[in-house]
Design a protein that fits this description.
The complex is a heterodimer. Chain A is α/β, with parallel strands linked by helices. Chain A is built from 17 helices and 25 strands. The longest helix of chain A has 20 residues. In chain B, strands 1-2 form a two-stranded antiparallel sheet. Classes of the chains: A alpha/beta, B mainly alpha.
């Protein structure tokens, strides 16, 4: 067992970063940031006040004209510097993520890499932000369209990818000439503090990138503030739909709300069994199931099989899946041979333990019970939950229809591909789905017909790269423009000019 | 030691490359007549280490199954040593080095095979580094021939 060195040695005091200054919050509400693997306190984070978010927005607003007039080429030079610093600090920021979130070190490094990729793509703004021009729309008259930044944007980060997700938006917003106020998740805010420190070191001017820690007051402050032009949010559907999207509509803000998911993973009879099962393990149990791209429902499809063949195929997949899931090594993510870390906190575990019981009560069969905790190393079990597998799940059950956000797999059967697609369409979410098959015909039909934003072919986690939009449909996304590269449209307005010279 | 995740494999493999580099640097000091050859082998070890780290850090992302890329892959199944017995004479040392390089090659090629489906970029670099080992074996054998004459 090789356990990597922890980069956080003492309890940190988290401050807000406003106008280029690290400011202690005036709030008397302070929360502990706890390492879920060993339950040690890593940091104290303030629940900032409405006044503090107002101050940050004011600073960002005052900074906007200066930043907007900084040339795109100069703006991205700051990002080039930031990218270099991120590479230098790659290992440290990755280990911080493992400590504050619980994910494995491989997963944290993946998250760091994805964050850096966002910065890399945003450095292309001088090309990506270009407008359009048509000469001679009438004789002697030309028409052209500019993209211009809008002002201040609010970025609200989730707990499950504390480092990467705010970076789906920040580099693009800044490169386009906007300023931002970021609210990290108060459960694991340290990664965003680290990246803000690097932004400061990169020389990004004071007031361009601001961070205010907190909870509902900070979010409400952003939503109500007349000087915030738009909100980028990643989190649950109830909050994204009923609070963020609704309030943005009422206050005339742009909104990109990436929300919840219930992802179906289809296994066709011709799938490569070994590779499919290994890919499914990371899909269902990677990040301890706490991601909007996680596999949730494994649908074994009997297309072209008679009943006897289908039963045999079903049993083969179920047995292989349960065997692989039962062998997953659970423990502290800084141990390099750990495959799954703890849940983010004990409350999430309590909720999921209740959901497992609900699944049993609904009549599903629990083949692998994650409540039997087996952890490698001498660690408190508080936030650990081992992989669970249910069979005989139907799409109308709670465990088959709702987002669980934990290491629980629900296995279902579908007679054929059409029935499997109907199951997916019967669910309100449309974030991600995958099909495991060697058939081009089935794949083509699946990709064409399925109403889901991110589709994987023999890929269990469909995480679009920075230079593609992070898609999502139905109740998984609220807004018009998605994150990542597509957010260049989100962060700019169009100005059309028609010119004639006398 | 069983290797399960990409992180564990990369740590192990890069340590092997670093220790190999040190071994050849020591040999270069002990046998200056072949020093240039040993130093070039050490340089190659360090280049391999960088290439492997670059492949891993360059492509690892949450769509890759980095935590699940190995199955029953145990370093104890390979007799990889990056040090020579004390007092070993030069011809025996060269023979031992040939054995070590062949074992490391086998390890790399097996690691490449196992990781191919899930972390293909890492698998590709393992394969490339493994195949390069054949050349190193030939170099060491030619030194052995020279010493034998």
């Amino acid at each position: 067992m090789v356990v990597l060195e922890e980069p956080i040695k003492k309890v940190l005091t988290i401050k807000n970063y406003i106008g280029g200054e690290w400011v202690e919050s005036k709030s008397d509400r302070i929360l502990d940031v706890i390492n879920p693997a060993n339950q040690k306190v890593l940091a104290k984070v303030p629940v900032s006040t409405r006044k503090e978010i107002d101050e940050a927005v004011q600073v960002a607003k005052e900074t906007f004209p200066m930043w907007r007039n900084t040339t795109p080429v100069a703006r991205v030079r700051y990002l080039f510097r930031l990218k270099e610093l991120m590479e230098e600090q790659f290992e440290e920021v990755s280990r911080v993520q493992t400590m504050e979130h619980g994910k494995t070190i491989d997963e944290s490094r993946g998250e760091t890499r994805r964050g850096i990729e966002m910065v890399e793509v945003a450095t292309g703004i001088p090309s990506l932000m270009q407008g359009a021009l048509l000469e001679d729309i009438a004789m002697g008259i030309d028409e052209f369209a500019y993209r211009q930044p809008l002002g201040v944007f609010g970025i609200i980060g989730p707990f499950n990818f504390p480092f990467m997700v705010p970076l789906w938006f920040i580099p693009f917003a800044l490169a386009c000439g906007n300023t931002v106020v970021v609210k990290p998740s108060s459960e694991d805010p340290i990664s965003q503090i680290k990246i803000a420190e690097l932004a400061e070191e990169a020389g990004i001017p004071p007031g361009v990138w601001n961070v205010v820690n907190g909870g509902r007051d900070v979010v409400s402050g952003m939503l109500e503030h007349p000087d915030i032009e738009g909100i980028c949010f990643v989190g649950s559907t109830p909050v994204g739909r009923d609070v963020i999207y609704k309030r943005c509509g009422e206050t005339g803000k742009r909104c990109a709300a990436q929300c919840g998911a219930k992802n179906f993973v289809l296994v066709m009879p011709d799938a490569n069994l070994d590779r499919t099962i290994r890919s499914c393990m990371t899909s269902f149990y990677g990040n301890t199931g706490q991601r909007c791209l996680s596999g949730a429902n494994l649908v074994i499809v009997g297309e072209g099989l008679n009943e006897h063949e289908f039963n045999a195929f079903y049993d083969k997949i179920v047995n292989a899946f349960v065997k692989a899931a039962s062998q997953i090594r659970v423990g502290y993510g800084l141990d390099e041979n750990i495959q799954m870390g703890p849940l983010r906190d004990t409350e999430k575990k309590k909720r999921l333990v209740g959901i497992i019981q609900k699944g049993i009560d609904e009549g599903a069969k629990l083949l692998l019970d994650g409540r039997n905790i087996k952890v490698i190393g001498d660690l408190p079990h508080d936030a650990f939950l081992n992989p669970s597998v249910f069979t005989e799940v139907t799409p109308d059950m709670y465990i088959g229809s709702q987002e669980l956000f934990g290491p629980i797999a629900s296995i279902m059967r579908a007679k054929n591909l059409n029935e499997a697609i109907d199951m997916i369409h019967g669910n309100p979410f449309g974030n991600a789905t995958s099909i495991f098959t060697q058939s081009g015909k089935w794949t083509r039909q699946f990709v064409h017909d399925v109403k889901v934003g991110n589709v994987g072919i023999n890929i269990g986690i469909v995480a679009p790269m920075a230079f593609f939009p992070f898609a999502g449909m139905k109740e998984s996304f609220y807004g018009v423009l998605h994150g990542q590269k597509e957010s260049i449209d989100f962060f700019t307005d169009r100005k059309v000019v028609i010119q004639r010279w006398f | 030691m069983e290797l399960i995740t990409a992180s564990a494999a990369i740590s192990y493999i890069t340590t092997v490359e670093e220790n190999s580099a040190k071994l050849y640097e020591n040999l270069a000091q002990k046998h200056p007549e072949d020093g240039e050859t040993f130093l070039s082998l050490a340089k190659e070890n360090r280049r391999n280490k960088k290439s492997i780290e670059f492949a891993y850090h360059g492509v690892i992302s949450d769509k890759l199954e980095a935590c699940f890329c190995f199955d029953n892959f145990d370093t104890d199944n390979y007799s990889i040593r990056t040090e020579l017995p004390k007092g070993i004479n030069y011809p025996d040392a060269l023979k031992k080095l040939v054995d070590i390089e062949e074992e490391i090659q086998k390890f790399f090629l097996d690691a490449a095979k196992q990781s191919k489906s899930l972390v293909p970029d890492v698998s590709w670099i393992f394969e490339r580094v493994g195949k390069k080992r054949a050349k190193r074996v030939a170099t060491l054998e030619s030194l052995l021939d020279k010493v034998a004459k």
